[in-house]
Predict the 3D structure of the following.
Amino acid sequence: MTVDARDDDPLIRRSYYEATVTRPADDPPLLGTIDADVCVIGAGFSGLSTALDLRAKGFSVVVVDAHEPGWGASGRNGGQALVGFANDHVVADQLGEDAKRAWRLSVDAVGLLRERIAKYSIDCDFVPGYLTVATRSKRVPELRAWMDMVEQRFDYPHLSWLDDAHERIDSERYLSGVYDSYSGHIHPLKYCLGLAAAARNAGVVIHSHSPVKRIVEGDKPVVETEQGAVHCRFLVIAGNASIGRVLPRVHDRIAPIGSFIVATERMEPELAASLIRDRVAVCDNNFFLDYFRVSNDDRLLFGGRATTAYMDPQAVSPVLRQRMLSVFPQLRDIKVEYAWGGYVDVTQNRAPDFGRLAPNIYYLQGFSGHGVALTGVAGRITAEAIAGQAGSFDLLARIQHRRIPGGELFRRPVLELGFMYHRVREALGV
Ligand SMILES: Cc1cc2nc3c(=O)[nH]c(=O)nc-3n(C[C@H](O)[C@H](O)[C@H](O)COP(=O)(O)OP(=O)(O)OC[C@H]3O[C@@H](n4cnc5c(N)ncnc54)[C@H](O)[C@@H]3O)c2cc1C
């Protein structure tokens, strides 16, 4: 059994995030056999959040990661910390009367992120505010309908409608928009390393560079790595998009979709401040969406360009730069300094996929581009479930998922066909 992603994976080359943090000394790899109440696989937001809350409840917790904290999507993403789900309609349809309770959890997720930043003094450049914008007239009523649903069905009070997105963004590309004053954005790797530090301080043991090779289920599950093993009472699998063949049973339900980000050189502060009012995060509502924000050191971080096949971020960089210039032509003389990418954990219906493989084995995955905040609450409700209060976990675990068709061999070509269909529709404006 091997892990899909590699240590030398060029998808992480030249990340602006890695260039702007100081990592602590490596956590040691797992050597030999140890016992813990709970073993968590994965030191991203999901795994670390689960570990922190379990430790606070008195459990002994060991986290093992194939690489190091924040190596996965948690250390590479767009940093947009959002309420809601990637597909609110699926949650509303499938959970019926209980959808409001589920949506409330997503609002709690942003609250939890804000609370943890304060509680653990995590310096991760949090900026409140998030703007969703429509690029085409057909998308305007869709955006309005989404806002109406969220306000009326979920009682979310922080949205305001902009007839003219230009009020908040210095770009001619957008028509209308929805402004959300409660969501926001962060430097995700700083946040993830902050969570890891808080977990260590609380007594969680983290083992880096310890890829899990095999999981033996049973009353006392065993997690085997190359050089060691953890015997535990409970296991939480938070390896997400890169868990790969170690767990085909759950991995088959997510498509790792490549997404890429470029960061410009530092701009003059006046130019940086003029692009987006109050420096809030921005995303459009297209199928192949662009997401961007201005960093606290006056760079534009611009992401998008979803792919099903592997691509070198350096090759994608000029394409993303062109997209960036179609939004902000005033940046034509500004250079791109960093380009990187990662795999987004996308389910077929774009709702998150939580569940149990056995009464004592939990998994969390498939946040579908909405994981920065939601992973926090996912960890919290998993810890609650292990401690005996499973109401919130079971609520979200009710969401039904399908396997991505095509199996290991044909999954990418099948996905590519779906992507082609959406590209053609977007090109035709339908
Ligand atoms: C480019 C990009 C942009 C994104 N932008 C946003 C955004 O703006 N807003 C948003 O909400 N979401 C965004 N996302 C999604 C978000 O980042 C993820 O949903 C979230 O980080 C998932 O966190 P996680 O802890 O579940 O998984 P990960 O962060 O991927 O962590 C999984 C960890 O498990 C480890 N692991 C995997 N397999 C094994 C194994 N066999 N043994 C041991 N360890 C293993 C990995 O090394 C990794 O560290 C984006 C994702 C990407 C890639």
About this structure: The two ends are 43 Å apart (CA to CA). Residues 134 and 285 are 6 Å apart (CA to CA). The chain has a mean pLDDT of 92.
